[in-house]
Amino acid sequence: MEHALSPTTLAELRRPRPYPAVSVLTPTHRREPDNAQDSVRLRNVVAEAKKQLENDPSVTRERRSDVFRQLDQALAEVDLTYTEDGLVIFAAPGEHQVWSLARSVPERVVLADTFLTRNLVSAHAAERPFWVLSLSADRVTLWNGGVDRVAESRAGGFPQTRSRQNFDAERREQIGDMPSTFRDEDTKHFLRDANTAMAALLREDPRPLYVTGEQAALSLWEELGNVARQSIPVQHGGLSHAGPEAVWQAIRPLLAAESRRSTASVTRELESARGHKTFAAGVDEVWQNAREGRVRLLAVEENYRTTVRDDGDHLIPAVGGDLDSRDDIVDEIVEQCLETGAEVRFVPDGTLGDESGIAGVLRY
Q: What does each C-alpha distance from 40 to 46, 81, 84, 276, 350 come to in angstroms?
């Protein structure tokens, strides 16, 4: 199952497909007893997708059979043991993908000539993704990080490794050939290659970068410049050979501190906007400004959800399941704001006080 949404991946997902491109969305649960019905619900929503394909006269028998196979293959790849809060299946002729999201999604089936990506975009923004690069003299490991986990990443050609044949420290010290592993020219060259690879990855998928290692490794990394100038050093050795839980525990205090700083910054910006009359609050007012490209900063409480319908002039509250209801309007707003260059910040529940879970700072 997929987790990491890079700009390149998103552009590929948004590419037009031969009809039908099928998007299947369903909420999932991490823990018992809520997850007991996830497998049944997933099978039912896939069955609904097949039913819609069967009833669509514009879908040829050949394409219908192809997409049926893709849906079945996607279903077989789902491991509900590792699901999070939402699951998205994309299927089109000759291809399929399965995405696990750390944000709930509405149950939905959409047939179109592009995949429905707004829920992925919103989940990606909410997850506040980051990179962790763990340094040692023989291995550089990359970790993909989100709200509550890290996982090893193979992006950018990582992990990078080299032979340990020259790492017999005791022997080299005896012959006076080891002033410092990280002063060795081969080690410098090894980390320089990792620096170059990380710089290329950050151009493709820019995120905050934490670099872990013992002090000697971090000092050399700093000397190399380039990526070092935009990375956050974390003095903690041994993580290039460790598991994700050890890396998460080392990074977690820094993430918590950054989250507090970010929330305080958002609060200050919203207060300033009130005084300058560039403030919007509530789903209807924010949506109107988002469509006009006026939102510079969007703040959303982490678990804020609402269902609305459009009466022509405004969004008004609605009941989920109504024919014209929009139960992922928050994700629509997030995607629209990102499309127009706004900064999107998710903040802890209750941060926005009486502002109905969503607020914005306007450009004008």
A: 10, 14, 16, 52, 34
Q: Which residue has the tokens 């970068």?
A: 209
**Residues in a beta bridge with 81:** none
**What is the per-residue pLDDT for 191?**
95
Element (H, E) at 90: strand 86-92
- pLDDT of 275 reads 93
In a 3-state reduction of DSSP, which class is residue 144?
strand
Single out the residue of 303, 301, 277 nearest to residue 359, CA to CA. Answer: 301
At how many degrees (to 10) do helices 38-54 and 61-77 cross?
A: 170
Q: Which residue do the tokens 């040692």 mark?
A: 136
Where does residue 78 fall: left (phi above 0), alpha (psi -120 to 50 degrees), or beta otherwise? beta
- CB-based contact 140:216 (threshold 8 Å): no
Alpha helices in 93-243 (DSSP H): 118-127, 169-174, 185-204, 215-224
C-beta separation of 309 from 315 below 8 A? yes
> What's the order of all strands across the beta sheet hosting 108-112?
95-101, 86-92, 21-27, 108-112
- Closest CA relative to residue 112, chosen from 91, 136, 142, 132: 91
Are 134 and 140 in contact by the 8 Å Cβ rule? The answer is yes
pLDDT at position 164: 63
For 277: left if phi > 0, alpha if psi spans -120 to 50, otherwise beta; the answer is left
Residue 175 pLDDT > 60? no
Give the separation between CA 33 and CA 46, rounded to whole angstroms: 22
Q: What is the pLDDT of residue 47?
A: 97
Measured CA to CA, the distance from residue 214 to residue 218 in angstroms comes to: 6
- Residues 64 and 19: their CA atoms lie apart, in Å, by 10
CB neighbour list of residue 174: distance below 8 Å, 6 or more residues apart? none
User: Which of 302, 280, 295 lies closest to 346, judged by CA?
Assistant: 302
Residue 61, both tokens: 């028998």
Tokens 């909420």 correspond to 27
